[in-house]
Amino acid sequence: MSSEHDSERDVPVTGDELVDTFPGYRAEDDVTVLERPGREASTVPNERVLRTELAGPLEHDLYSHQAEALEALARDENVCVATSTSSGKTRIYALQIARNYLEARARNEDATAYVLYPTKALSRDQERELNDLFDDLGLEITVRVYDGDTERGRNRKRIREEADVIISNFAGVNTYLHDHDRWARFLSACDLVVIDESHTYTGVHGMHVAWIVRRLKRVLGYYDADPQFVLTSATIGNPAEHSSALIDESVTVVDDDGSPTGPRDLVLWNPPPRGRENTDDERDEWGESGEAQKEDAPAIVERVPATVEAPRMLSHLTYHDAQTLLFTPSRKLAELSVKRASKHRHDNRRYYTNPDRGSAIEPYHAGHSRKKRHGTEHQLKTGVLDGVASTNALELGINIGEMDATVQLGYPGQRQSFWQQIGRAGRGTKRALSVLVAEHRTLDQYVVNNPDYLLESDVEDAVVDVDNDAVFAQHLRCAADELAVDESDVGTLADRERLERAIEMWRRAGQLRGRLETGVSYVGPPRPQQTISLYATTGEEYEVDLADGVDERHDPGMEPLARERVLRDFHEGAVRLHQGQQYEVTAVDHDAPRPSVTVRPTDVDYYTRTRTDVTVLDAVSEESREIGDFTLHFGRGRVLVYHGSYDKVAVHGGKRKEQGISTENPPLEMETQLCWLEVPQRIETALIEKYRDFEVPELEDGLAGTAHLGYAGGLHAAEHATIGVAPLELMVDKRDLGGLATLTIDSHLDQEADADADAGSQFGTAGSPGGDGAPRNIAAAEATVREIANGLERTPASGWFIYDGIEGGLGFARAIYENYEAVAERARELIADCDCGNVDGCPACVMDDQCGNDNQPLHRDAAVDVLDQLLGNEGEAALEAYLPDEEHGGDRRPPLFYA
Hints:
Elements: H1 4-9, H2 15-21, E1 31-36, E2 43-44, H3 52-55, E3 62-63, H4 64-74, E4 79-82, H5 89-106, E5 112-116, H6 120-136, E6 143-145, H7 154-162, E7 165-168, H8 170-176, H9 184-188, E8 190-195, H10 203-222, E9 228-233, H11 239-247, E10 252-254, E11 264-269, E12 273-275, E13 301-303, H12 306-319, E14 324-327, H13 331-347, E15 361-364, H14 370-381, E16 387-390, E17 405-409, H15 415-422, E18 432-437, H16 442-449, H17 452-455, H18 469-482, H19 496-508, E19 512-515, E20 519-522, E21 541-546, E22 561-562, H20 563-569, E23 575-578, E24 581-589, E25 596-602, E26 606-627, E27 630-650, E28 656-662, E29 668-679, H21 681-690, H22 709-729, E30 737-742, H23 778-790, E31 798-804, H24 812-818, H25 820-833, H26 860-871, E32 897-898
Parallel strand pairs: 4-9, 4-10, 5-7, 5-8, 6-7, 8-9, 11-18, 14-16, 14-17, 15-16, 17-18, 21-25
Antiparallel strand pairs: 1-11, 2-3, 12-13, 19-20, 21-22, 23-24, 24-25, 26-27, 27-28, 27-29, 29-31, 30-31, 30-32
Helix pairs in contact: 4-5, 5-6, 10-18, 12-13, 18-19, 21-22, 22-25, 22-26, 25-26
């Protein structure tokens, strides 16, 4: 091993050197440099594990985890390999394919393998790597990619009939299962299925993949194939549970990493504070900061956005000869970061005296053409490019060589993803540099202020829930189309009751025919597989078309859009940035057999920001429990999301040019899982009085000075904080959660409290825009809530809802219900410990860039009071002095609710 001094010379810039050389002043507390030691390789002689004809040609001995996995496969076990980035996981299944090939050849039989990657880019990359390895081993194993880009006709037929290894993805498998008879040769010989980067299959995407695997196994069984599974994963907290949920079989986990790594400098970088009035450059360009500055707002201290600071870091590191990969959370930011990196270099020419040095920086994301992506990958690998600003597309194992440094624009949300991304830097056993540039928001600020959180050994669990009936129902139709569903599917595809309920629903809809005893067949519209959207619980997607008369060279080439994204971001009049070009949405067709969005290129000085309102209706409590005097519920309900209007916001400066323009959008309606907390009447009454002088002058609807506003702001702030900290305590994704704080919980409940759901309703697609009975707009929804509130016989409870933002639910609201005290404790600490000093908080404590009410009203102190009462930190006596002789604000509180 080299000395520490020698290893520091291996990377162009160390963590300490970065702090010393980066232009500008920063406080000592803004930066933390952590040193992570390297690790020597642990190897096993090839001959101990492999037959001679495979062991001999290999240049290096196997790492210990590779040997362990191959030994488990030799015992006919399924394997999940959960080790670090670039630890040689591909070599494991490649060698198993080679073993199977040699054994089958000795029997004069075929052996095929289905290798499934999450992205097309990864497929092409791995095709080359596998073919090179088999050539080195002297084996005539044919590896081919078969996906949507594969030339149709004879070429596809040749691959199905001749290839030993077919590389594809789950979107493809979902489609190809319809024509499984064409694949009979390949499927009947299949003895290995590989699921690469399996940790990426979580949430809704994971649900779909789990059902596609179950459908694939049905068809493989039809051809008498019973393959083993190899899953490769980043380090996650529950690899056995997650893998078993995906493939519905037991799995042996190999997670003791034997690969070598070099030392790493890990820099946690909190951008410096600055006055908000200094917004003269890139601060609000394209609204990436999450909030527009209010006119005449007082100057407050905030931090430079990571959207500005991280591109500066990219520019600085490449100038110092460190080939750098910047991870951004969106395609738009990948494009903008390249421009901002160049601007930083130009604006600091006194420091960067050679502006062309290390300036070859390009964006990379899935919106680019395959040719452009491959060109960028090749230029990175060969050193032509000094840096790349990428989405998480390069988080996966695409072969781009080994970078000197990574920069993360904001904490990616999970430790698993954090370590996966920074693992892309590190040249062999040489020192690497990784920089996390924090956003001024809940998770980021928690991480940079608690560095030990990143270094804890526990990593988040990957969540796959196959209990979502809306997703199950879609795949049941596909399964019945592929092979008749019968008694043999009871207990494997689903239990009898669930199967029969779903079959009955589709039978009534005229899409299934028959019974389990004799076989259930699909009789609906052709190819139900095409209605599956792997990223939504309902299958509808919108094609993106170019407006008539526009030159085809301006075609944005966008992937189909999920309905939720169309309603939020691609309404008529929206201006979107794609690959550096602005596009205006000129038309949206919701009702056509092929829903579509029509766009044309434009060049305007504004972007659009959609306003979102949310309410909950018809919630039904399925179970409840007491937390002190509070009551906590879990159940199901209807969530209505209204993307009803939008603003035009100036590109430079962030001021609103036009406000409240109607989108004419229908509401998005979904039946989902929720939990909600009811605040005791006595605590509510005291807090209304304690904070009755709180006002928000700019609040609409004449509610600026209502006596209940301070308390409502406390509920709203507590709801934001509870959702914000959930990923720290539980294995959930904040983006899949929503919330609603309300003064009248009872007006959001099912007034008939009928918990006996109709058999079909659990399998419905309530996510369709404008479902029957949904109020057309938020004003109508507010009127509905107000009418219910006025008709209540008892004083309603107040509190807040947390819901799964996915049709049918994901199980996240259930997890929060079961761990509410721990989540609430984190939320209380977050709010109370924030040093922003603002009554309405800041993005690091209670402000949320997804808030449908523009983060109004919020009241930190009232939120702390509520949470202290919930957790028992303060007794009722603490509020005794605020209990009034009679209720203020009228006999009946206003039915306020804030998303």
